[in-house]
Design goal:
Blueprint lengths: L75 H4 L2 H5 L3 H7 L22
Amino acid sequence: TEFPGVLKDQDFATDADVTDDLGAHPDAVKVTMPAGSLMIARGDLWHRGGANRSDTARCLVTPQYCAGWLRPLESMLLSVPPERAAALPERVRELLGYSIHPPFMGYSDGMHPQRVLP
């Protein structure tokens, strides 16, 4: 379900912020699926998980890939040591963040980030 404005002042929304009433957000789409289902969405989709109203834990796997102009949830650039990243294929380095998005997103000290690799 999409809830524009739920994240305010860098605070995370709580279960109290989740409602089944979409009246305030007429363009929002609530997605309900049976257990074991898979939802795939673009990285620029504003989204929020609904409250888990069951007595069991809910598992969520979120492999992250974001367009160059979006800031990722976790910095893949910093999670792979530069020595290891240097040995990877160029496309993999780009997906890790060793890339730029024109005109100015992703530069490091005014240079392409791949120039900092050993």
